[in-house]
Design goal:
Helix content: 55-70%
Mean pLDDT: 76
Protein name: DUF7745 domain-containing protein
Number of strands: 3
Domain DUF7745: 11-131
Order of helices and strands: HHEEHHEHHH
Strand order of the largest sheet: 1-2-3
Number of helices: 7
Distance between the termini: 29 Å
């Protein structure tokens, strides 16, 4: 017998990270290309005004990861970044996730011809396979 796994949606993950209501979060989720995002402006406003200091720090960290480490849509934080934060809450190490996302980003840049990651993607893949 297989048990269904309850995977939180982007909306639920954002509610958990931000501490905001379902209505607040749902009103700010946007579709960008093939994924859902939340605009940086909404997160910035929350960082400046949230009454819970821990939630302000969480939203700030989410913003850094979404805008700097794993940027996908300009001035928006992609739903895949919330997956990383979901793992943090469960005390799971984020290293494999970060490496996998880095590898995918390097490969996507290489395929699109945007940048010069000559052999770095292959090197990262070789290292990744040797570690896991």
């Amino acid at each position: 017998m297989m048990r269904a796994i309850n995977v939180p949606t982007f909306l639920k993950k954002l509610m958990n990270i931000t501490g905001m209501s379902e209505h607040w979060v749902a009103a700010r989720i946007k579709q960008k290309g093939d994924s859902k995002c939340i605009p940086w402006k909404s997160l910035k406003d929350l960082i400046l005004t949230h009454i819970n200091v821990r939630k302000r720090v969480d939203v700030f960290a989410l913003s850094i990861y979404g805008l700097v480490v794993f940027p996908k849509a300009l001035r928006h934080v992609d739903e895949s970044v919330t997956d990383l934060f979901d793992q943090f809450d469960k005390r799971v190490t984020p290293i494999p996730t970060i490496l996998a996302k880095t590898f995918r980003s390097l490969s996507a840049c290489r395929k699109a011809g945007e940048g010069r990651f000559i052999r770095y993607a292959q090197l990262l893949l070789a290292w990744f396979h040797s570690q896991f």
